[in-house]
Write a structure and sequence with these properties.
Helix content is about 35%, strand content about 20%. The protein has helices at about 20-30, 50-60, 75-85, 100-110, 125-130, 155-170, 185-195, 200-205, 210-220; strands spanning about 5-10, 35-40, 65-70, 90-95, 115-120, 135-140, 175-180, 195-200. The radius of gyration is 16 Å and the shape is globular.
Length: about 220
């Protein structure tokens, strides 16, 4: 039996923004473990999404669930303090988004957050070896970042395997997350490659029954 605890993280990028707070509460009630909060700037990625004021508003409304903030912005450092103040629990950054990755990761952790490092499909995993002592989460993108609803890039599983090997050798307690095109038909493959945290947007928010969608993902994981 796989000893890892699997976590499901719905991406609010696919939620109904007109009632975002209700959408977050609904997926948590349906069995999700944490919320994936996608931030895009139209520079690092092609579209603009949301900023720290949205997260702050959600916190003020009483939402206390773990917020896994993925910053697809460049430069990234200016926003880290704002998101920590707004209530981010985890902040993940891309190595391409900062000139000084060590400093950026340290600033997240010194600010009280957990630090994540994100790898795009074509980003070499080697930098993880240099930063492993500073990260609490590794996120492997199985699509190119910037849009929801994209198809899963199968070759990303190799990167998950590489990341798992580095994490295991480090002996540190680090979550390995995968994001992009995750659904019931491929989530077990991602788990077998070494992922333990799964971002799913349209697979959950695009379903009529959030609970049924999450149960289907967990049933698929049971075979991993």
């Amino acid at each position: 039996m796989n000893p890892r605890t699997y976590l499901i993280a719905p991406s609010i990028l696919s939620a109904n923004f007109a009632r975002l707070g209700d959408e977050i509460e609904a997926v948590i009630a349906a069995g999700a473990d944490l919320i994936h909060f996608d931030v895009m700037d139209i520079y690092y990625v092609p579209i603009l999404s949301i900023g720290p004021l949205v997260l702050e508003s959600l916190r003020r409304s009483g939402i206390k669930h773990t917020m896994d903030v993925h910053l697809m912005v460049k430069p990234v450092d200016r926003l880290i303090g704002d998101f920590l103040k707004a209530g981010a629990d985890i902040i993940s950054v891309h190595p391409e988004s900062t000139e000084h990755l060590h400093r950026t990761l340290c600033s997240i952790r010194e600010g009280g957050g957990r630090a994540g490092l994100v790898f795009n499909p074509a980003t070499p995993i080697a930098v993880l070896e240099e930063a492993i002592h500073l990260v609490d989460l590794v996120l492997v993108m199985s699509v190119n970042p910037g849009f929801g609803g994209q198809s899963f890039i199968v070759e990303s599983l190799r990167k998950v395997e590489q990341a798992r090997s580095i994490i295991d050798r480090s002996g540190r307690d680090i979550r390995l997350e995968i994001d992009g095109g995750i659904k019931a038909s491929n989530i077990a493959s991602a788990a077998k490659a070494g992922a333990d945290t799964f971002v799913a947007g349209s697979a959950i928010y695009g379903a009529r029954d959030y609970g049924a969608a999450i149960r289907e993902l967990r049933q698929a994981l049971a075979s991993a």
